[in-house]
Structure to design on (629 residues):
């Protein structure tokens, strides 16, 4: 299979100490969706920045459609589209003017730029808002415009850096459908995400990154299988009975259960069947659980399973995440629209 | 694992690119960014106040509030026919253009903050276009402000004593000086973490240079040490050069010194700004 994107041993260190990428390698087959899955600060955005020629790696190499991202950056730029985590659009321009500007900077002719702007506004349901300044746009509309701007030159390779972080569920679904349409049309997509659900839905292949390293790679199905597809959370009223439960479920669990205080996390293959089984076992011993929840694995579970530690946002990502923006300042309306923790929680 | 090589994206897109030379595209990109920056000025009420209303206020306030109290000494008073407004206008031209160039810092800091520069870095556009487009747009804006101030100045008694050529040469000197300064503010804008920082860094640097200069008060009226500073710092020769071009008197020394400052500033600041821009991603 031909590879649209190849990264070999990419390394990047910020401020001489922060190791954002520590020999990251992966390749993306043409016409597929590749998901880089990881928490804030894992190095996802740094990888995207290197592949889109914004940053130069300290070590290793990368190619997009066979063009080296350092030596042939210009060819790479002519083959890619990038939509970032924060909608990088000009507040003072209208939607149409934004698309036209990006199109002209892609060196499309004026008439073609005008036509592409109209097409894309229609494609992203922004026709009515197209001639309004961006100040009147909602967060979801800005994000759609940002993705539209990435598509102006019909790039064969598209980079989407957390395209749905902070979006409401409906806008999220809209972005997902757009990505699926593009892939059906032959576009190669590299997508970064914090959500296993998103990777599961869109990506053919997923690499899990943590602290600048790829810690697992495979299809979403393989990843989830390696975790135990589902987790049964059993809460007891005291640690002793929790410990008893952890031992008791050994025959049901797909992997050893995790004992966390009063709580037991039981990885299982077939959720509903295992739930019935565990309830029966509890009942036989006269144990009454304080809580009993069956859930799909979260990113936290992936991390716990793969690394033995909970996914945590490192303070590192100087470049991944420009957090240090005061909320009080008068210039706030122009700031990058940050995904609030609430919004992230809601989208999860 | 074979790589796809030689794939040219955008079959329709390639056509105009094949014809254009690298320099042609660099110019076209700079024009695109210039337009975008000019649109931003016209749509942004703050910008209109800063570059339109505020300069008018400065002319009127200095003319009427300080005009009565500031007496031009000796020969200077005779040359300017004792009209403070004539002394004031060259100073206020320079002051306004210098303050205006702070928006270069603010604009670039905002573009960094919003992620727009990052998007630009991933486009096949000329690397130079962001800074060039910013400079061109600021230049166009400065010309507009200059025309506006000249009109208001004329209404309150400002009369050029030399000729049209002198006036235009003075205008040109103000504009190239502000162009040079804007590269300094580009450095600040590309270094600051946000637009507020850019702004609060810029003005304290600017105030002493603008006011400890012959812009509003003759240096002969200042303490010796301050007068010397005012005479030789960049704003000194520029203000005196513009004044000489518009009102006569010995022009050569001031203008030569002023141009030397302009060249010196550009030689230092342009590479510095370009370096910051390359690192700013």
């Amino acid at each position: 299979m031909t590879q649209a994107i190849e990264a070999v041993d990419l390394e990047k260190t910020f401020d001489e100490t922060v190791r954002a990428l520590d020999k990251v390698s992966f390749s993306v087959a043409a016409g597929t969706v590749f998901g880089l899955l990881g928490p804030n600060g894992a190095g996802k955005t740094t990888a995207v920045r290197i592949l889109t020629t914004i940053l130069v790696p300290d070590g290793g190499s990368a190619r997009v459609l066979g063009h080296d991202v350092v030596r042939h950056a210009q060819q790479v730029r002519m083959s890619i589209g990038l939509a970032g985590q924060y909608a990088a659009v000009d507040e003072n321009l209208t939607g149409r003017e934004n698309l036209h500007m990006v199109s002209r900077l892609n060196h499309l002719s004026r008439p073609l730029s005008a036509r592409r702007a109209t097409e894309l506004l229609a494609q992203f349901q922004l026709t009515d808002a197209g001639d309004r300044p961006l100040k009147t746009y909602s967060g979801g509309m800005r994000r759609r415009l940002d993705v539209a701007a990435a598509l102006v030159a019909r790039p064969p390779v598209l980079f989407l850096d957390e395209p749905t972080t902070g979006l409401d569920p409906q806008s999220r679904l809209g972005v997902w459908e757009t990505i699926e349409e593009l892939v059906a049309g032959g576009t190669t997509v590299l997508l970064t995400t914090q959500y296993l659900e998103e990777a599961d839905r869109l990506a053919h292949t997923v690499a899990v990154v943590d602290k600048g390293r790829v810690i697992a790679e495979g299809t979403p199905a393989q990843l989830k299988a390696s975790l135990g597809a589902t987790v049964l959370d059993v809460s007891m009223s005291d640690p002793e009975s929790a410990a008893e439960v952890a031992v008791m479920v050994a025959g049901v669990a797909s992997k050893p259960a995790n004992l966390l205080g009063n709580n037991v996390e039981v990885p299982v293959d077939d959720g509903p069947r295992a739930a019935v089984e565990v309830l029966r076992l509890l009942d036989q011993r006269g144990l009454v659980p304080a809580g009993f929840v069956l859930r799909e694995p979260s990113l936290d579970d992936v991390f716990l399973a793969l690394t033995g530690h909970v996914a945590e946002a490192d303070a590192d990502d100087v470049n991944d995440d420009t957090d240090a923006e005061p909320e009080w300042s008068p210039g706030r309306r122009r700031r990058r629209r940050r995904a609030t923790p609430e919004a992230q929680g809601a989208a999860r | 694992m074979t790589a796809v090589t030689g794939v040219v994206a955008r079959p329709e897109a390639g056509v105009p690119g094949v014809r254009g030379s690298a320099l042609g595209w660099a110019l076209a990109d700079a024009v695109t960014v210039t337009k975008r920056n000019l649109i931003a000025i016209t749509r942004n009420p703050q910008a209109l106040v800063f570059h339109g209303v505020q300069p008018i206020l400065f002319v009127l306030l200095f003319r009427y509030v300080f005009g009565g109290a500031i007496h031009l000494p000796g020969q200077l008073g005779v040359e300017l026919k004792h009209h403070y407004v004539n002394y004031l206008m060259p100073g206020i031209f320079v002051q306004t253009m210098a303050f205006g160039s702070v928006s270069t810092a603010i604009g670039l800091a905002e573009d960094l903050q919003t992620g727009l520069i990052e998007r630009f870095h991933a486009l096949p556009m000329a690397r130079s276009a962001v800074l060039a487009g910013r400079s061109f747009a600021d230049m166009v804006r400065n010309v507009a402000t200059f025309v506006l101030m000249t009109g208001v100045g004329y209404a309150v008694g400002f009369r050029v004593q030399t000729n049209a050529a002198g006036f235009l040469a003075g205008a040109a000197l103000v504009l190239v000086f502000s162009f040079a300064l804007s590269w300094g503010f580009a450095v600040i804008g590309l270094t600051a973490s946000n637009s507020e920082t850019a702004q609060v860094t810029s003005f304290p640097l600017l105030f002493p240079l603008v006011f400890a200069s012959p812009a509003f008060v003759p240096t002969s009226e200042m303490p010796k040490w301050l007068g010397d500073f005012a005479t030789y710092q960049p704003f000194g020769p520029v203000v005196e050069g513009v004044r000489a071009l518009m009102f006569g008197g010995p022009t050569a020394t001031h203008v030569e010194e002023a141009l030397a400052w302009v060249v010196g500033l550009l030689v230092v600041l342009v590479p510095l700004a370009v370096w910051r821009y390359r690192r700013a991603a």
